[in-house]
Amino acid sequence: MIGTGISVNSITARRRHPLARVAVVALALGLLGGGYALAAPNGSTADAAIASGKADDAAEGKSLFVAHCASCHGFNAEGSNKAPTLIGVGAAAVDFQVSSGRMPAADAGPQAPRKPRPDWATDQAIDQLSAYVQSLGGGPTRPTEEQVNPALGDPAKGGELFRANCIQCHNFVGAGGALTYGKYAPPLNPATPTQIYEAMVTGPQAMPVFNDSTITPEQKRDMIAYITHVRSQVDPGGSGLGRIGPVTEGLVAWVVGLSLLILASIWITAKKRRAQA
Amino acid sequence: MNAPPKAITGPSTFLDDRLGAGNFLKRNLRKVFPDHWSFLLGEIALYSFVILLLTGTFLTFWFKPSMGEVNYLGNYAPLYDVRMSEAYASSLHISFDIRGGLLVRQMHHWAALLFVAGMTAHALRIFFTGAYRKPRELNWLIGVGLLTLALLEGLTGYSLPDDLLSGAGLRITQGVAQSIPIVGTYISFFLFGGEYPGHDVIPRFYTIHILLIPGILLALISAHMILMWVQKHTQMPGKARTEKNVVGAPFYPAFMAKSGAFFLFTFGVIALLGTFAQINPIWLFGPYNPANISAGSQPDWYMGFLEGALRLMPAWEINFLGHTVTFSVLIPALVPMGIIMTGLALYPFLEQWVTGDRREHHVCDRPRNNPHRTSIGISAITFYGILWLLGANDEISSVFHIDLYTTTWVGRFAVFIGPAIAYWITYRICIGLQRKDAEVLSHGVESGVIKRMPNGQYIEVHTPPAEDIAEHIRGKKEIPMLVGSADGDGIPPKGARSAIGRLRTKMSEAYGTDHVPLTDGHHNGHHEEEHAAVGAGERKELH
Fold first, then answer.
1. Of A225, A8, A171, nearest to B164 (Cα)?
2. In this protein, which residues make up the domain named Cytochrome b/b6 N-terminal region profile (chain B) (predicted)?
3. In chain B, what residues touch A181 (CB-CB under 8 Å)?
4. 3-state secondary structure of B431
5. Comparing C-alpha atoms, which of B263, B342, B271, B21 is closest to residue A268?
């Protein structure tokens, strides 16, 4: 407005105009909204920088972090009353949470569910985010391809460890199970070998940590070999009925078995003997 | 009729002269069996039992009832070289290395589920139609015994493969034994031959499962059938059906053909399930190790109500004179089972005590015609059903995303409130159905024809019900009641003077009062009954 040639008096006069208040509020809102639009998280700028390869991973990761994570975890990953600090959780935790779509969380439920990743969470973006969080305070790193290759593991040995450590929550084939207060052990079927490994070393959500002194990396690979072997196995006995044990079996016995037999008995007794001619 | 050929008469005469079977067959082959679909429910159990014996025999050829430890070297790769009991290894061997072994194992397990399901459905049919009444109380008691034994047979059976899931069941069994005050630990040591799990339990359960209980089951089933044969089958009320006759088809050839066909149906359904639906995949559970337990560990369905009771029970435990009494195990293990089995066994006698009915009954009640009995039955089903459902509360929580503790708390209240609500609703439905019956008899059935009279009145044409339907409805019997009212001098009858006597006559009155007596149609004899469709009397409106 400066330099428009309008005298101070006329401004003062217009300040008293009945619509002045409305105009001021509209202006303030407009400035706020416009400013926000400029400063708001914007994937395209980060993508452009990544594509040009100018910035290093941790720095790019920080900008991704500020854009997508900081509102709950704090601008320096120091945590808030909504979410824990991420200093020291390590790259493995970031990769597990973001690659499985659990983070960013949709809402504050008892547990963040697995869901499709948002568009910005490309493999490269996860690499950068992981590098940034790793740079904050160390922590478990992501496993190598070799560490999670099921072909190199011994499924029988892994099965014994799986039964001793995992099935009390995840069920005997990893079909998942209920925990208390709305939490649950998710099914393991959609988890990649890398995610299974990372879950063990980081202990996401309600899960305990199985560090390398509790279960060695080789043993973890054996367990991954067992989990992936069993879940890809064709059920030899017909339909697996959800592989959750006798609950569905009992349901099938009553709903299918007994119903078919009752239909048969109705059909048989409805057939009347023809009167002899 | 032509004389039979000599090739048949020769051996028949030979046998008849020595066994005297001719007369027996002549008398019994013409035995009449009434036709109703629900009378075949017991046969589901009977034929499942036959299939259990056949498939079970097959399984014993390869099963090794031993807790001796071996390293598994069979075909199932994810368990290769894993240390396990011989029982488990031989079960895997049957599943993966014996031709047809998995199919027979699965058929055996499906047949077991259907055996108990068939018995349950059969018992409910008997209960709701009052077919347990005099003279069949003893056969009813045999049936309750069979049901109880079947549960034990199932428990010992699914424990045998010694997989992780069966081990969980075994551990609960041991926990229940230990929870019995004073003698609990002794019973546990006696059952397992020392510390749990020990080496004795599988061989012992094997003998019980394949010899002792099947032997008793076979004897009791025979007794059950013979009594049924001698006392004759009950029949549904209907045309020309009285307490003195049985209307139906003769055993030979009609009933025999139907029954034979039904065996094949049962076999077919079990074979289908065994082929297409995997049951008890022991290779997925892994070998039993007392340190391991899986989420979603449930027993077979017929033990589900006990599982549910255990899951609902609050953690109550007291110390009485130095003995720990664990109510959190003792009550769920004994009380629901006690209520259901004792209730079943005593019901015929309690009903006789309340009604004072000492007559013989060969014609079944329709469930609506004895509303209190039907309501008691549905209440018991609700009680059982809620416990049964809550036995799977972790799966419910996991599948439907309901908080686990919410299911527990809902269950704790529902198990008491549910049966009461069920009682009331069932009672109202029974009365409603009786009213409908009375209406059908007195007014006929709607023909769908509306007539307009010359004066403008609309009339809905009713036709009398078909004769068999009318007779079926007229088969309703009054329920006897004790006389409790005072005589002319104001003195009540002898039995009704004590507090219990007064309660008894009051219950008798409630149990026996017929709220909807049947009246015969006031238009009897008319082929076409006509009723005003729009009129004060009918209160029916046409729009």
1. A171
2. 11-237
3. 403-405
4. helix
5. B263
Q: What is the dihedral of CA B110, B111, B117, B122, to 10 degrees?
A: 160
DSSP string for B255-306: IHHHHHHHHHHHHHHHHHHHHHB----HHHH-B--TT---TT----GGGHHH
Domains and CATH numbers, chain A: 44-137 (1.10.760.10), 146-232 (1.10.760.10)
pLDDT digits (tens, 9 = 90+) for A227-245: 999 999 999 999 989 888 8
How high does pLDDT run on average in chain B? Answer: 89
Please list, residue by residue across A25-60, b when 16 or more beta carbons sit within 10 angstroms of its beta carbon and e when fewer do. Answer: eeeeeeeeeeeeeeeeeebeebbeebeeeeeebbeb
Q: Decide if A169 touches B, using CB distance below 8 A.
A: yes
The interface pTM score, or ipTM, of the predicted complex is 0.87
Pick from A168, A243, A269: CB nearest B284: A243
Rounded to the nearest 5 percent, the helix, strand and coil shares of chain B are 60, 5, 30
Q: Look at the block and give the residue holding tokens 């077979």.
A: B300
Task: Tell me which fold the domain B31-236+248-305 belongs to.
Answer: Cytochrome Bc1 Complex; Chain C (1.20.810)
Q: Rounded to whole angstroms, what are the CA distances from A229 to A223, A225, B78, B94, B196?
A: 10, 6, 8, 22, 33
pTM for the model stands at: 0.86
Distance CA B425, CA B437 (A): 18
Copy the structure tokens of residue B53: 């014996």
Sign of the alpha-carbon dihedral angle for B420, B421, B422, B425: positive
Task: Report strand pairing: B69-71 vs B83-85.
Answer: antiparallel
**C-alpha to C-alpha distance for B515 and B367, rounded to whole angstroms:** 15
Per-residue pLDDT at A262: 94
**A260 in contact with chain B, both atoms CB, cutoff 8 A:** yes
What are the residue boundaries of the structural domains of chain B, listed by start?
Answer: 31-236+248-305, 444-532
pLDDT over 70, % of chain B: 94
